[in-house]
Design goal:
four-stranded antiparallel β-sheet
């Protein structure tokens, strides 16, 4: 069966990222990093929240409270009251950096990557961190464009990518979710010239990777074998997430960033958020544990 993709939300994001299906609210969220916005679209209509800093990814703490990664900190955000509570700094001493891709792990931790706001001139200036029960720990330094953060269904392994290096790594995790071995290359995409962006693991353990500039989400088996692709009508596919009542809809954010006026004219749906049916089934996003 060929997945059927369509526009889910026509609002255009400069840099759509961080799509997230809230498992108790049954509500879909995503970010426009450059626009400093959190967006949503559900049965009550389209919603938007603006922030004083760039925001890029989130996990759920409760029905109403999200943990959000901003450019300077990790903070709690109440969707109903819009109250903010800062949890900890995130490279607040590096004003040239911001957060990027992130996701909660099955053990209740939250992984988040940082990168230069101008990634082309700040190669290797970012890192990947994990927040777990009140502790923020740097896991991997010298990352240029962190992406592809997601986890196997049993929580035994995590994945992460550096888009600039065109590689995805897989790392074994201990029972509390901390890395217990050196990462190993899972996908080396330098040969085909593909740029791995955000990713999610489906219910079968397949790695579903949005590939920047390729108009697609590519699906790989747990062994790293290419299985299939889901095409979208925008070149810069940035991050996928499963959602919907039965977690059978694959959402995908896209971006305008880096596109010339001519490229934008040729792809009028760039920056919109898409959905595809028939692309597999996902798993509920785990809750972030604060203590």
């Amino acid at each position: 069966m060929t997945p059927d993709s369509h526009i889910y939300d026509a609002r255009i994001c400069d840099l759509g990222e961080g799509p997230f299906w809230h498992p108790t609210r049954h509500q879909f969220f995503w970010f426009d990093i450059v626009g400093q916005k959190l967006l949503s679209n559900d049965r009550d209509g389209a919603k938007l929240w603006r922030f004083p800093e760039m925001v890029s990814a989130c996990g759920w703490v409760s029905n109403d409270v999200l943990l959000i990664a901003g450019e300077r900190d990790l903070f709690l955000f109440d969707l109903e009251t819009e109250e903010i509570e800062v949890l900890c700094d995130l490279e607040a001493d590096q004003p040239g950096n911001r957060s990027n891709d992130g996701r909660a792990d099955p053990q209740g931790g939250f992984w988040i990557g940082t990168m230069g706001k101008d990634g082309a001139t700040r190669l290797g200036k970012g890192a990947i961190y994990r927040y777990y029960k009140g502790e923020l720990r740097k896991l991997y330094p010298h990352i240029s464009i962190p992406n592809g953060i997601c986890f196997t269904p049993d929580g035994s392994h995590g994945y992460f990518a550096d888009t600039a290096q065109q590689k995805v790594w897989k790392v074994a995790l201990d029972p509390e979710g901390w890395p217990k071995a050196d990462p190993e290359v899972f996908l080396d995409l330098t040969g085909p010239g593909l740029e791995p962006d955000g990713a999610v693991v489906d219910a079968d353990g397949n790695y579903c990777n949005a590939q920047w500039g390729a108009s697609r989400v590519a699906v790989y088996s747990p062994a790293g074998d290419y299985l299939r692709e889901i095409r979208f009508a925008a070149p810069h596919t940035s991050c996928p997430a499963f959602g919907g009542p039965d977690l059978a809809t694959l959402f995908c954010t896209t971006a305008l960033e880096g596109m010339s006026p001519e490229a934008r004219a040729a792809a009028p749906d760039a920056g919109k958020t898409f959905a595809a049916s028939g692309a597999g089934h996902g798993r509920p996003e785990p809750r972030v544990l604060l203590e």
